[in-house]
Automatic annotation (TrEMBL):
Keyword Protease belongs to the record: yes
Keyword Signal found: yes
Pfam families on file: Peptidase_S11 (PF00768), SPOR (PF05036)
InterPro entries: Beta-lactam/transpept-like (IPR012338), Peptidase_S11 (IPR018044), Peptidase_S11_N (IPR001967), SPOR-like_dom (IPR007730), SPOR-like_sf (IPR036680)
Binding site for substrate: 229
Protein name: D-alanyl-D-alanine carboxypeptidase
Domain SPOR: 377-461
Entry annotation: catalytic residues: 67 (proton acceptor), 70 (proton acceptor), 127
A single BP term in Gene Ontology: proteolysis
Entry's family note: Belongs to the peptidase S11 family.
Length: 461
């Protein structure tokens, strides 16, 4: 009996020891995970009227943006709407690639169509990955081109530490940003597109018979919060950009790398309550210069791209040659993106990988003025109508705007864009409307334009 009892006690002690060891190990794992998460957290609060930084914690540390990426997707969408290139009721077709994106998503089948406004609302509320990809394909021709447009626009807005690789923020090791850059983008969205900024305050919307609710729990909870965007992946942690107004005061705050949605929201609430009273009630100057016109890559002053000797969209650049050139002239950096070749480069002084990614857009079309800030590299497939050609991109764009106003019903579903090309050493810009599904559709539309005394011809892209 004593031996049996001794055996039982011995086994119990051994089991207890094992349990204690496991508990200690779990504690260490949890502590290590918490420490790792805390180490990668970042935050910034900026007075949106004066630009003064009210609070900063590792604001320039590299972070994964997750769904904050969609802020830039929406910026380019709003820009296209403001220029009349698309409208809120324009059609967004979901490709097989877009439809296959993982949740969260709207759930549109391949070949399905929604309006631009539905795509916007689904990105703002549900953070729909499929809608972001579909919008990227609409504006950029394909998502890779659209990502280059996003990076170029980031650089033009002064976001020096951001590179985009996709339209939705799904994990990509080459896609990164900082809390400071995201704050700048948040300010730019409100400053540049006040007519569309109200979308960010939308808490839910109806899609068919479904009501889709948003992820931003601070809307309605914290006084003055009117947007902007949440984001999460395992690698990024929980992210949030908030715009807040209180009387004459306005701030934009960013929290990145939160350990949970609740802790992120609580930290944001604390920052708002602490720093809103410290914001200035004066100051109305524009903080983020508009990246409009024909020069969205002014920040790349170190890279001189020749005007008359650059490849046009009809030519295939030699990626290997330019990659060798960049490797020879620039230091080794992480996550580089090769630049598309220009035939002659006067000076190359590429300092960072993100500058290389931005230059890729410009190099494909010659100089800065050859880059259409909305439809860069976005020559729509299928049939288009050409209405003008000019040695100045501004004139070609003006003709597009004029034609759109003269024939709004005929061109309701078309998308205006410019294409640069060289002829006898001179750069010209074709003014075209794309989006026609067939030759007959393009010819029919052109015939209707001619009845309005607008010269044109149909061309296959």
């Amino acid at each position: 009996m004593r031996q049996a009892l001794s055996g039982i006690l011995s086994k119990s002690a051994s089991s207890l020891k094992t349990i204690m060891i496991l508990a200690l190990a779990m504690t260490l794992v949890v502590a290590e995970a918490a420490s790792s998460q805390a180490a990668k957290s970042a935050a910034i609060v900026i007075d949106a009227k004066t630009g003064k930084v009210l609070y900063s914690s590792d604001a320039d540390g590299r972070r994964y943006p997750a769904s904050l990426t969609k802020m830039m997707t929406l910026y380019l969408t709003f820009e296209a709407m403001a220029k009349g290139k698309i409208a809120k009721n324009s059609r967004v077709v979901f490709s097989a690639r877009a439809a296959a994106e993982p949740p969260t998503k709207l759930g549109v089948r391949p070949g399905g169509v929604v309006t631009v406004e539905t795509a916007i609302l689904s990105m703002v509320t549900k953070s729909a990955n499929d809608s972001a990809t579909a919008i990227g394909e609409l504006l950029g021709g394909n998502e890779a081109n659209f990502a280059r447009m996003m990076t170029a626009k980031a650089r033009a807005l002064g976001m020096k530490s951001t590179v985009f690789r996709n339209a939705n923020g799904l994990p990509d090791p080459g896609q990164f940003t900082t809390a400071r850059d995201m704050a700048m983008l948040g300010i730019a969205l409100r400053e540049h597109f006040p007519q569309y900024y109200g979308y960010f305050s939308q808490r839910s919307f109806l899609y068919g018979r479904r009501r889709i609710n948003g992820h931003n729990r601070l809307l309605g909870r914290i006084k003055g919060v009117d947007g902007i965007k949440t984001g999460y992946t395992r690698a990024s942690g929980y992210n949030l950009v908030s715009s807040v107004s209180d009387g004459d005061r306005r701030i934009v705050a960013v929290v990145m790398g939160g350990s949970s949605g609740g802790s992120r929201d609580n930290r944001m609430a604390g920052l708002i309550n602490t720093y809103m009273p410290k914001a200035s009630s004066r100051g109305s100057g524009v903080l983020i210069a508009k990246a409009g016109g024909g020069n969205p890559i002014t920040a790349l002053a170190k890279v001189f791209l020749p005007k008359h000797d650059a490849p046009t969209p009809d030519e295939k650049p030699d990626n290997d040659a330019i990659a060798a050139l960049v490797e020879e002239n620039a230091p080794v950096v992480e996550e580089t993106t090769p630049v598309v070749q220009t035939r002659k480069v006067k000076t190359v002084a590429v300092a960072t990988a993100d500058d290389i990614a931005t230059a890729r857009v410009a190099a494909a079309y010659g100089d800065a003025e050859a880059v259409d800030p909305v439809n860069t590299a976005s020559v729509p497939s299928g049939w288009a109508i050409q209405v003008a050609s000019s040695p100045k991109r501004s004139e070609a764009q003006a003709f597009l705007d004029k034609t759109s106003k003269q024939a709004p019903s005929i061109l309701a579903d078309a998308s205006g864009f410019t294409v640069a090309f060289d002829k006898d050493g001179v750069t010209y810009y074709r003014a075209r409307f794309g989006g026609f599904g067939s030759k007959n559709a393009a010819w029919k539309a052109c015939g209707a334009l001619k009845k309005k005394k607008i010269e044109c011809y149909a061309v296959q892209q």
